[in-house]
Amino acid sequence: MNASAVHAPSPLVHQAASLLLLHPDDRWPDRIRLVRDCLAAAPGPAARSLRRCCDALAGVPVLDLSARYVVTFDRSRRRTLHLTYYTDGDTRRRGQSLLSWQDLYRTHGWQPPPDELPDFLPLALEFAARCPEPGVRALQEHRAGLELLRLALGDHRSPYVHVLEAVCHTLPGASPADRAAALRLARTGPPTETVGLLPFTGQAPRGPVDPPLLPVPHVPGPHPPHPAEAAR
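^ thats the sequence. predicted structure below, dont judge the formating
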């Protein structure tokens, strides 16, 4: 979803996207005001997509928005914000992939909050904003999962779809038009060659097995079992 026109810097887009994808709490009004102010004069399709999301969310009471957020992201496997659910499901591979994300962060001197899994998309986006080269490379390796999330949010008619559109605008190559094309992307790899994440360390935890949303072969992934309430 890249464009050749002038566009907002990717770190700005990634930081704004990270803030918009965090759970709305009592600081949400200040957060969205900050995002809107920073994007007010930013050019390009990614910034426009983020502004569309802000416009759609700005007038929603925080409690209502919080409830919508839970329904959107916490109760559907197809709309989870944990990137490796799309590649590994609830399998032992996810433990290894989680450690890989942790190693990636530590290698670049970044310590995310201890109360969140490292494949959580807002964390990955903040890392990409702070450390653009390795961060964008990691996002690109999970491009198929990001595109599936984008498509699922569109099907759900969620304004958060604009955030995923913005993120995908910052990555090389065009976005797939539908789920079948996204699955083909998962089989063939991202549009441009990327360097893999750091080697896995440690042992993956044992846990229930749930099939991944993407074909397992091409992409490594993090994150221990996602909540079982994710029924779809």
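Confidence is low (pLDDT under 50) at residues 189-232.
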